[in-house]
Structures are given as C-alpha cells and as structure tokens.
Amino acid sequence: MGTTRKWETIKTYEDIFFDYFDGIGKITINRERYRNAFRPTTVNEMSDAFRICREDQRINVVVLTGAGDKAFCSGGDQTVKGKGGYIDKDGIPRLNILEVQRQIRSLPKPVIAMVNGYAIGGGHVLHVVCDISIASENAIFGQTGPKVGSFDAGLGSSYLASIIGQKKAREIWFMCRQYSAAEALEMGLVNKVVPFDQLEDEVVAWAQKMQEHSPLALRMLKLGLNAELDGQVGLQEFAGNATLLYYLTEEAQEGKNAFLEKRKPDFKKYPKFP
Ligand code: S0N
C-alpha cells in the first residue's frame, strides 16, 4: 500500500474535499456514487478552492483528483442537465466548469491531475487542462459529448489537439471511444502511469520535486507555455507577470519613489543589459 499521509482539511464543503499536506493543496471531487460527476455546486466549490490555492502562501503545487478507486471525474451530472446548462438548487442553468478550466490554466502554480479511474467527458477535459497528468493503471480516458448531446469545442478540443495532435484529438471526439492508461501514455496524454496503490505517492513525489525549484521560474514557464496558444489573453497574462517581475526591481521603484518625493526620476543609473 502507499504511504499514509495526514492531510489537513483547509475548508469543508458539500461536494469536494480540500486538503493540505507539505506545500500541496489537494482538491478531491467527492461524488463517488456518481463517478464524481460535477453539478453546479461541485463546480462552485472547486472554483472557491482553486481561488484559495492561488492566494494561500503555503500552497506551492495543486493536485486535482476524485474520491474512490473508480473515477477521477465523469463530467457534468447528466441528471441535472437542463436547457442551457446544469441546473442546481437555485434553478439557474450554468456552464460554470469553463471558469474552473480557466482558473487551472491561469493559476501561477503547477496543477497535477491525479487520475484514479475514469476521466470521461468534462472530467477528461479537466485532466487535459492540468499541467501534468499522472494516472493509475486502471484509469480510462475518453470524451462522450457527441454521444450524450454535448461538446467542448474550446480547451477540451483545441488544447487537447495541441497535446496529442489533430488527428488523434478528432478521433477521440468523433468516435467517443475509451482509452486505457497505457494508450493514454502512448499518445502523450498523460505523463506517467503507476499501479493504483502507488498513485498518491507518485504524485506527492512529483509535487515535492517541483517545490525544490524556483516558484517564479515555474510560474513564468507555465505562463509562457500557455501564452503560445492563448493569443491576446495569453499575452495579457504573460505581460502581467512581466510587470510583477519589473515591480520587484529598483528601477521600477525609482519611478514610484520619484513621483512620491516630487522629484525627477534618475533612470540613467540602471544597467542596460545587452
Ligand atoms: C464514467 C462511466 C464510463 C463509468 O461507467 P461504470 O463504471 O459502468 O458506472 P455506471 O454504472 O455507468 O455509473 C455509476 C453510477 O454513476 C452515475 N453516473 C456516472 N456518470 C454520471 C454523470 N456524468 N452524470 C450523472 N450520473 C452519472 C450512473 O448513472 C450510475 O448511477 P446508477 O447507479 O444510479 O445507475 C459512465 O458512468 C459514463 O459514461 N458516464 C457518463 C459520462 C458522460 O457522458 N458525461 C457527460 C459528458 N459531458 C460533459 O461532461 C459536458 C460538460 C462540459 O465539460 C462542458 C464543456 C464545454 C462547455 C460546457 C460544458 C458544460 O458544463 O456543460
């Protein structure tokens, strides 16, 4: 069996667990009875937890997974799918999983999908948008959209194609087949496959290795890799982070200090790196 860790609860929710251990924030979809399908409540809670992961200075790496040994996530809860989206207690149809996809992508910390079973439909897209996917040998991957009356023509298709290639992405969506963990590894859809009882140990080891490295370097690499594919929005995110780095320099502080001290700034003294 894998190592038993003492995860500490960060916040209590209805549909998810949100735990902390050694620099890692772990978000677990806890709807095992429904193969961890998400309803709007689940997605709202995930969004809140990802927002906390962004702010919490203790958290360096985020892990997303599902409860139990059968599913990572089986996508949108089909029992609450109505006209215009997924309908929760408030009666309003929502497609709020798209917001969580964007949060994962723009979170300036690595996000690892710990794929512990079925990653299907919108659940498959969730692992696709994570930075790294580590799967157990029993994991099964696939899209069902055209079979069940939905599709994700956004990141779920275009980003998928950038990972595994256009032909394979089209096959996955047009054929709605299921793929084993070994096939997923072969097509570059996941980074590593391990026996189920070693999954958490493996994910924690990857997270610990990443934590040995410069968080700013990881942040800029993630944003740069995103920016290539994200057009103006990617450029905006990348530029925002360049601004962050600039604000850390004495040169930028000279501009602010001169303004506050009502004097002319002296930028000449700063090096012009060749
Ligand atoms: C996951 C599958 C393959 C597992 O099969 P298995 O092991 O044979 O178990 P089952 O007996 O089928 O399931 C056990 C119980 O769990 C229920 N259940 C499973 N999945 C769901 C689900 N998605 N919604 C609700 N219930 C689910 C079963 O009904 C069963 O219950 P009981 O015991 O009462 O019979 C298999 O379960 C499967 O294929 N599931 C459905 C997968 C699927 O089609 N998901 C939806 C795909 N679409 C989306 O996710 C769209 C959402 C999205 O990402 C999106 C993207 C872009 C724009 C908008 C959206 C958006 O938010 O809509």
Automatic annotation (TrEMBL):
Pfam families: ECH_1
Binding site for hydrogencarbonate: Q143, T144, G145
Site residues (Important for catalysis), renumbered to this chain: Y86, Y247
The keyword Lyase appears for this protein: yes
Entry cofactors: hydrogencarbonate
Functional pathway: Quinol/quinone metabolism; 1,4-dihydroxy-2-naphthoate biosynthesis; 1,4-dihydroxy-2-naphthoate from chorismate: step 6/7; Quinol/quinone metabolism; menaquinone biosynthesis
Gene Ontology biological-process entries: menaquinone biosynthetic process
Signal sequence interval, chain numbering: none
Reactions this protein catalyses: 2-succinylbenzoyl-CoA + H(+) = 1,4-dihydroxy-2-naphthoyl-CoA + H2O
Enzyme Commission no: 4.1.3.36
Keyword set, alphabetical order: Lyase, Menaquinone biosynthesis
Residues where substrate binds: 35, 74-78, 86, 118-122, 144, 150, 247, 262
GO cellular component terms listed in the entry, alphabetical order: cytosol
Gene3D superfamilies in the cross-refs: 2-enoyl-CoA Hydratase, Chain A, domain 1, Lyase 2-enoyl-coa Hydratase, Chain A, domain 2
GO molecular function: 1,4-dihydroxy-2-naphthoyl-CoA synthase activity
Superkingdom of origin organism: Bacteria
Matching HAMAP family: MenB (MF_01934)
Function: Converts o-succinylbenzoyl-CoA (OSB-CoA) to 1,4-dihydroxy-2-naphthoyl-CoA (DHNA-CoA).
Protein name: 1,4-dihydroxy-2-naphthoyl-CoA synthase
Organism: Mariniphaga anaerophila
The organism's taxonomic lineage, starting at the top: Bacteria, Pseudomonadati, Bacteroidota, Bacteroidia, Marinilabiliales
Annotated gene: menB
